[in-house]
Amino acid sequence: MLREKVAKLTKLLFAGATMALCVATVNPAVQVQAGMLEESEPNEVPANATSLPLNTWMRGITVKGSDTDYYSFIIPEGNGCAQVELRSGDDNPKDSAKWRVDLYDVDRNPLNNFAGNSGKSYVLGLAPGKYLVKVKSTTGYGPQCSYNLRVNYTASSQWEKEQYYKNKTMGNANSVVVNKLYTGNLYRNFDKDYYRIKLNGTNNVTFKFMIDDSVDVPGRWRVDFYDAKTFKLLKANKNNSISANETWTVRCTGDLIVKIGNSSNAEGKIYHIQASAKTYKAPVVKPIATTISSIKAGKRQATVYWRKANNATGYYVYRSTNSKSGYKKIATVTGKTYYTDKKSLTSKKTYYYKVVSIRKSGSKVLTAKSSACKSVKIKSDSAV
């Protein structure tokens, strides 16, 4: 117990007078950088984390092999990318001083980590809010060791908003618009990034996936496309994974969701995406012409029968007393292929009928070629 108290006290004092002694004996040319902040002890638990301003170096000290320091930082409103960086202090008695650095969200969900004498986390697009950094000594020997810690942050509207992988769903996908470049990064092997492309109507969407120039050895990503309303899979990778720039075209009605996953060794490798959309115009489908199959005469009426026509949504029925001219539309028929004409037909008179297939397309009505005419003689009023 006494040994622990002495170690903590030594850690607190080490940032002051002891620092000058170490600098003088280990590396006389090294001085504490102007503007560098010092950690605030005690900060061994998240509740006591030292506040770390963005883009500012902070000097910390670990006093034994298992010592831990916590820091907190705030990502401001708006999109941006952040990277945690650690460097070994120049005053350390040994070059082998090592640490493990972990990045957490405010709920202590792990986002990334690295270890060593110095290093950097992945570059991640982080949502606004509070985050934690844990620095744990892995040196394994007693002497005090100093380190310099910084969170490098750049405001940018093109970065995804990273979150803990188990919290990611299609329902909370990153909202993106067409004709704008976005950047993302899978922070662990089983991470997935979701993007929701905002669209109106039915569109042919061209989606480009591009690997960042900083990636020397590409991994393999999987890219899938879903209907944003039903979450139905619309299109998947042809070979389940890609390792080079690629472009797809997907047709969708309403918003489109894109899921990007790690197929193999894509962790930490930056990619870019961009979508464009072109309103889809369905090809004009005209109805096929029909033919009159028969006409049955009655007393002052006639029933016309015709064959069902492909692509037709209805039919116009025309009548004349002359086989070659004078036809007038007497009915519009939907849902059936016959019509009974009861419009004051004259007994023993001959009438001619034609039927035209129609198809409604929006506000337009498409028509097929008229059927050949067919005649019928109305029965006598005295007929049985």
Q: Bin the strand percentage.
A: over 45%
Shape: rod-shaped
Mean of residue pLDDT?
87
Alpha-carbon Rg, integer: 38 Å
C-alpha end-to-end distance? 121 Å
Structural class: mainly beta
Low-pLDDT stretches are 1-32
Please bin the fraction of helical residues. under 10%
Total tally of structural domains: 3
Largest beta-sheet details: 6 strands, mixed
CATH architecture of the largest domain: Sandwich
Tally of helical segments? 1
β-strand number: 28
Structure commentary:
The chain is mainly beta and 384 residues long. It folds into three domains: 2-76 and 84-150, Jelly Rolls (Sandwich), CATH 2.60.120.380; 165-279, Jelly Rolls; 292-377, Immunoglobulin-like (Sandwich). The chain has one helix and 28 strands. Strands 1, 3, 5, 8, 9 and 11 form a six-stranded mixed β-sheet that branches. It has a five-stranded mixed β-sheet with strand order 2-4-10-6-7, with no helix packed on it. A five-stranded mixed β-sheet has the order 12-14-19-16-17, with no helix packed on it.
Please describe the structure with a list of short key phrases separated by commas or semicolons.
384 residues, mainly beta, Jelly Rolls, Immunoglobulin-like, 3 domains, 6-stranded mixed β-sheet, 1 helix, 28 strands, 45% strand, disordered N terminus
Write the layout of secondary structure elements.
Elements: H1 2-26, E1 37-38, E2 50-51, E3 58-62, E4 68-75, E5 80-88, E6 99-105, E7 110-116, E8 119-120, E9 124-125, E10 129-137, E11 145-155, E12 174-176, E13 182-184, E14 192-197, E15 202-211, E16 220-227, E17 233-235, E18 246-253, E19 256-264, E20 271-279, E21 292-298, E22 301-306, E23 314-320, E24 328-333, E25 338-341, E26 350-361, E27 364-367, E28 374-377
Parallel strand pairs: 1-3, 2-4, 12-14
Antiparallel strand pairs: 3-11, 4-10, 5-8, 5-9, 5-11, 6-7, 6-10, 13-20, 14-19, 15-18, 15-20, 16-17, 16-19, 21-22, 22-25, 23-24, 23-26, 26-27, 26-28
